[in-house]
Amino acid sequence: MLYRGPLSSCNYACPYCPFAKHTETAAEHAADARALARFSAWAETQPFSLSIFFTPWGEALVRPRYQAALTHLSHLPHIRQLAIQTNLSGSLRWLENAEKSKIGVWATYHPGEVARERFLTRCAELDTLGVRYSVGVVGKKGHFGDIETMRAALPGHVYLWINAFKVGDGYYSQADLTRLGAVDPLFEVNTRRYRVRGMPCNAGETVISVEGDGTARRCHFIERPIGNIYEQDVRDLLRPRPCTRSSCECHIGYVHLPALDAASVYGDGLLARLPDPTLWADAARLETYLARARNLRAN
Ligand code: SF4
Ligand code: SF4
């Protein structure tokens, strides 16, 4: 389950993001806190196992309420996994009290917003705590050097992913693709807009996206709600459906396409974008995955 509450503020000012330096009123924070508390209470009482991925509009992990929610949920037996997208700027002390084996951190490094050494210090803290994490960077042309330097500085066991900067065809030259592919072997999968209309997708069957008021959607990308988790049994909302969008280009969407079989690469690390560590020594498995992605129809 992907949870995205009303929070829409961030302490960073990334030029490619609408939430940069957006601040919220006390009333807006209170509304986000109420929504989070309601969702946590709902998750706590469900009679089935559940994994939750927090995908906030902005930075949530600098807020003690999100740290406390993750900590609390991590100790519940039926909560399988928790993950959250973060710029890693907040304190990580809360993790000391969490069930760390269940938590995956989807960290994004934003060159220009944070010193490399500071970000790396945070990564080292996660390693010391024994928390699994991946590190991502937006693949803007001006970031290429930062990406390579970050890759060289991170421990070898940490996956560095690159999100393609999707501003239209032709942004990347073949040389760019080769250069970034040398850093992130899975980069090319993220460079495409897959033509998905009519294709089976697990979004809406094994994974759903939920807003602060309980509105449930198949995924973050299809506006039409499928129900409300506070008004009906969520299991009644789940069923196979073909995709109704013309394209899907975001990792947190297309990884749910059965035709891609992303689980063959990510295993139980799918939620926090953590490939199975054995993948890199298994060239055949990696190439099979890349070939599957190439064979999906792309715009
Ligand atoms: S850290 Fe993330 S949410 Fe904050 S401004 Fe940058 S891209 Fe946006
Ligand atoms: S393919 Fe993408 S847009 Fe379509 S249902 Fe799946 S996640 Fe949503």
TrEMBL record:
It comes from the Bacteria. This is MoaA/NifB/PqqE/SkfB family radical SAM enzyme. NCBIfam families: rSAM_STM4011 (NF038073). It comes from Deinococcus humi.
